[in-house]
Structure formats: C-alpha cells, structure tokens
Specification:
It is built from seven helices and 13 strands. The chain is an alpha/beta fold. The strands form three sheets. It has a nine-stranded mixed β-sheet with strand order 5-4-3-6-7-9-11-12-13. Strands 1-2 form a two-stranded antiparallel sheet.
Length: 221
C-alpha cells in the first residue's frame, strides 16, 4: 500500500507528523477563531495573501451609512456592508442606530465579534442575534436604548437571560423599560457578581426591585 504523504510540523515538544490530508481538512474546516490559533502555531495554516479577514476596532451604523475603524486607525465609509470585500473580525466597540435589519446585516458580514462595548438604539432583535453579538462574553459595557430582545415566538427575553450573555459586563444601561425577572432561582444562577452598575427603568407594578437586588451587588439609578 502506498504510504500517504507526510507533512512535518512542530507543536511544541515532542515533534509530531501528520498526513497532509489532515492539515488540508483542518485548514478548510476550521472556524475563524481556531484558524487564527492554527496560524500562530504553524506556517502551513497561514494565508499567502495575509490575514483573510478585515479586523475592525470600531463599527458604527447610522441610517444607511456604516463607519468602520481599522486597527491602524483607518476609516472606512460604506453605504452597505456588501461593498466591503472581506469578512469582518470585530473587536472594540459596536454602535447600532435605528436602521432596517442593521444587526442582521452586520452578523451576515462578520465572522467573529469579540467586543468590549455594545450600544443598541431602537433595535428589535432576536435572542439568537444578541447571543451572536455577545459571543465570547468579552463585553464590559452594554447600552440598550429603546431596544427589545425577543425569542422566536416574540416573547420578550427576561432580564436574567440577557445578563447571562454578559458575564464580564461591569456597566449595563437599559435606557427603556427593563424586562422582568421570571424567577428567583434562575436569577440566582445566571446573574454575575461582576456587574458594578445597572441602570434601568422599571414598572413598579410588574417588576419587584427587591427581587433583583437580592441577587446582585449593583448600584441602581
């Protein structure tokens, strides 16, 4: 039987040999985060034309205009994200003002979102979209202004489920009426003690403030 071609690569010690087909499969099927890790440990996985994604430090959408700032502080203006040839790897900050399907369009163009600040203005998004925006749990500051997060059945997502997506957030501002907490048990399990400051407008008839304060060490304004 003909021996398969071998590719030599060093992953620390000891040195390991793998068939070239294994590396080809890994390069073709690795998700972007894993692809970046592979590029760091083996030249085989690096692309001849450089990093295959456009890394964006900040992205702002206002109306039909998108403003992107790259790591080297270059500014890109676009009327549509479709006009940008590369997929986006977003770090830093995302700001979305009122616009039709703005979040959905951003997610379609983005391969990775690892941001520290998220600002949503007048957005109605699904829980799946919010999970994609907060993927990695790296957000430290999150602002909701007249924005609503719902499940697929249009039911409003409870507050504890939203906060569960923000395990490292220190500041969260609900600029509109805050969703209610469903149960004490889920609140106790999901709300992180890292939260320092929570700003929200509550309806005293439907929202028991003591329920929230029983499980969070926050300043309520």
């Amino acid at each position: 039987m003909e021996e398969s071609e071998q590719t030599f690569v060093t992953f620390g010690s000891p040195k390991l040999y793998f068939p070239s087909d294994v590396f080809k499969w890994m390069k073709l099927n690795a998700n972007p985060k894993m692809a970046l890790k592979l590029m760091k440990v083996c030249k085989y996985f690096q692309h001849s034309n450089g990093f295959p994604f456009l890394v964006v430090k900040c992205i702002l959408q206002n109306g039909s205009t998108w403003i992107l700032e790259t790591l080297d502080k270059k500014e890109i203006l676009a009327e549509s994200l479709e006009t940008i040839s590369d997929k986006l790897w977003v770090v830093g900050r995302v700001t979305i003002y009122p616009g039709q399907k703005a979040v959905a369009n951003l997610l379609l163009k983005t391969v990775v979102i690892n941001i520290e600040e998220l600002m949503l203005y007048a957005q109605n998004i699904t829980m799946d979209e919010f999970k994609a925006l907060t993927d990695g749990g790296t957000i430290e500051r999150c602002y909701f202004k007249q924005s609503t997060i719902t499940f697929e059945n249009d039911e409003i997502v409870p507050l504890e489920d939203i906060l569960e997506c923000l395990p490292n957030a220190r500041f969260i501002d609900f600029g509109n009426k805050a969703p209610s907490i469903n149960s004490l048990e889920t609140a106790e399990a999901k709300i992180s003690s890292k939260l320092e400051n929570l700003t929200l407008l509550v309806d005293s008839k439907n929202f028991v403030v003591e329920t929230l304060l029983s499980y969070m060490k926050v300043s309520l304004f």
